[in-house]
């Protein structure tokens, strides 16, 4: 006792009048509907072409900081990027001129976050 495909069967004769019974026979003559939509590919995230990541200590009282340079982003976007990177790394940071300065040595973890934000080439120095 398996399931039966009810589309192929004619409706059983019954005591009631089914006004749509004749239409089920003409179903094959109907025109084809619109083609199914093609699946969209996720666009590659847009971001700067490159970034240079380096660690420095000079002029900072011996404290280590990680500097991200050559992003080429406007000041408003630099603030947005800084906030996202600080949250992802769990550290403090500041924007100095056109560079991002993050507290601590973040050279190992930072390239993965930058590539996720759309940077195509990350140079670690």
Give structural notes:
The protein is α+β, with helices and mostly antiparallel strands and 125 residues long. The protein is 22% helix and 20% strand. The chain has three helices and five strands. It has a five-stranded mixed beta sheet, with helices on one face. Strand 1 and strand 2 form a beta hairpin.
Instruction: State the strand order across the main sheet.
Output: 3-4-2-1-5
Portion of residues in helices?
10-25%
Task: Kindly state the number of beta strands.
Answer: 5
Number of helices: 3
Shape: rod-shaped
- The parts where pLDDT drops under 50 for at least 5 residues are none
* Strand portion: 15-25%
Entry summary:
The protein contains three helices and five strands, in the order αββαββαβ. The protein has helices at 21-25, 75-89, 110-116, and strands spanning 50-56, 65-69, 93-96, 99-103, 121-124.
What brief labels describe this structure?
125 residues; alpha+beta; 5-stranded mixed beta sheet; 20% strand
Q: Mind sketching the topology for me?
A:
Layout: H1 21-25, E1 50-56, E2 65-69, H2 75-89, E3 93-96, E4 99-103, H3 110-116, E5 121-124
Parallel strand pairs: 1-5
Antiparallel strand pairs: 1-2, 2-4, 3-4
């Amino acid at each position: 006792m398996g399931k039966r495909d009810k589309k192929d069967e004619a409706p059983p004769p019954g005591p009631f009048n089914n006004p749509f019974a004749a239409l089920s026979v003409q179903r094959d003559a109907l025109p084809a509907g619109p083609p199914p939509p093609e699946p969209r590919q996720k666009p590659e995230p847009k971001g700067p072409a490159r970034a240079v990541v380096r660690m420095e200590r000079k002029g900072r009282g011996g404290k280590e900081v990680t500097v991200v340079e050559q992003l080429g982003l406007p000041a408003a976007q630099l603030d947005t990027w800084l906030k996202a990177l600080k949250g992802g790394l769990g550290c403090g940071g500041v924007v100095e001129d056109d560079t991002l300065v993050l507290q601590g040595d973040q050279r190992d973890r930072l390239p993965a976050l930058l590539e996720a934000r759309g940077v195509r080439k990350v140079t670690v120095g």
